[in-house]
Design goal:
A: mainly beta, 7-stranded mixed beta sheet, B: mainly beta, about 0% helix, globular
């Protein structure tokens, strides 16, 4: 049963702490997305990787967020330092696309529910 | 004004009803249109994927795209309590960047 796996599912942390979220994309997929979902804004694209290369991270606050793909089976999203306004559900999604910027159907993980107090 | 607008609902219907969910958009470059279903505390799952204008049918679900009106719809026939979820529309112009609606909450009453 191929699926995107995200850990942890829930995270409560204090303001100022570092938070790391992990994602295992579906085997064989070459595209990874990180999204943030809030009630007010809905789903917002934070970062996009194709073949492990970061092609777009314009949706991320640069001073505190970072995203990496150390290998094809792991993507990470890090927040340092975390702030209460970062409280949201963070989704990783993967897909298979041809061409650097071609459209890709995204298959979502279960999300990490982050609460920063 | 947001690029994609979606009525947040909630929309409550009796079991067996036909449900119509809609999104409007402003970017005429959008050509790819998707509908996702999201159950509570779960990730979105892709329901329908259409390119350009026209209709697409899959079982009880029909997706319609009217590019002239910048309006897309998802119809659910013979709705079931298991269809109760939030439905998200998403659209893009052919790159990786999809714009999502904020979702419509649907409740189908048994």
């Amino acid at each position: 049963d191929a699926r995107v796996t995200q850990t942890p599912r829930h995270k409560v942390t204090e303001m100022g702490q570092e938070v790391t979220m992990r994602c295992q994309p579906i085997l064989g997929h070459n595209t990874v997305f990180w999204y943030r979902q809030t009630m007010m804004q809905g789903l917002e694209l934070l970062a996009y990787f194709r073949n492990r290369a970061p092609l777009d991270d314009s949706g991320m606050p640069k001073d505190r967020f970072s995203a990496e793909m150390p290998d094809a089976t792991l993507a990470t999203l890090k927040i340092q330092p975390s702030e209460p306004r970062d409280s949201a559900v963070y989704f990783c999604a993967s897909g298979f696309g041809t061409g650097t910027l071609s459209n890709t159907e995204a298959f979502f993980g279960q999300g990490t529910r982050l609460t920063v107090v | 004004q947001k690029e994609v607008e979606q009525d947040p609902g909630p929309l409550s219907v009796p079991e067996g009803a036909i449900v119509s969910l809609n999104c409007t958009y402003s970017n005429s470059a959008f050509q790819y249109f998707m509908w996702y279903r999201q159950y509570s505390r779960k990730g979105p799952e892709l329901l329908m994927y259409t390119y350009s204008s026209g209709n697409k049918e899959d079982g009880r679900f029909t997706a319609q795209v009217d590019k002239s009106s910048k309006y897309i719809s998802l119809f659910i026939r013979d709705s079931q309590p298991s269809d109760s979820a939030t439905y998200l529309c998403a659209m893009g112009s052919g790159t990786y960047k999809y714009i999502f609606g904020t979702g419509t909450r649907l409740k189908v009453l048994a």
